[in-house]
Design a protein that fits this description.
Layout lengths: L2 H28 L7 H9 L7 H21 L3 H24 L18 H35 L1
Helix pairs in contact: 1-3, 1-5, 3-4, 4-5
């Protein structure tokens, strides 16, 4: 794969992931109804103590998402940033997947707070899978760039 193609592909991945995490992080900070964050509400149905910390959980997740956005824009520590994004998405997806397999259904996960729209659990799982694939694709591109750079330095 050509270096220019890899660079633009990685840029597109950074923009897409950055936009998603930006809307998600800001949307949850704008929406003061933390109990409306369905992921926390679902978790609290199994782990009752979660509801006590709902505000802290949502604010922490929002800040983590915005930090990821900052590093995606800054283009520093990109491997770590994509790994953090992948782990965050994998965590969300595994929780939602668990509840989906339990037969629960929700109108919206509340992942985007004030910007949420009724996307349903299935759509959210598909969207998160696509976003995780983008993270993996970005990590593969970084590794390919690193190998290409190593090859160019040896010649």
């Amino acid at each position: 794969m050509q270096s220019t193609y890899r660079r633009y592909s990685l840029l597109a991945i950074r923009i897409i992931l950055g936009a998603v995490f930006l809307f998600s992080g800001i949307g949850k900070l704008i929406d003061s109804g933390y109990v409306n964050y369905d992921l926390v509400r679902l978790l609290s149905s199994t782990y009752f103590w979660v509801i006590e910390y709902a505000a802290h959980i949502v604010i922490s997740l929002s800040i983590a998402e915005l930090v990821i956005v900052g590093f995606l824009c800054w283009e520093k520590y990109l491997k770590w940033t994509l790994t953090a994004a992948l782990l965050l998405l994998a965590g969300f997806t595994s929780i939602l997947g668990y509840f989906y397999l339990q037969g629960m259904n929700i109108a919206s996960c509340g992942c985007f707070g004030a910007f949420s729209f009724g996307s349903g659990l299935e759509f959210t799982l598909i969207r998160n899978t696509v976003l995780m694939l983008l993270c993996i694709g970005g990590l593969v591109l970084i590794q390919a760039q690193k190998q290409q750079s190593s090859l160019n330095n040896h010649h």
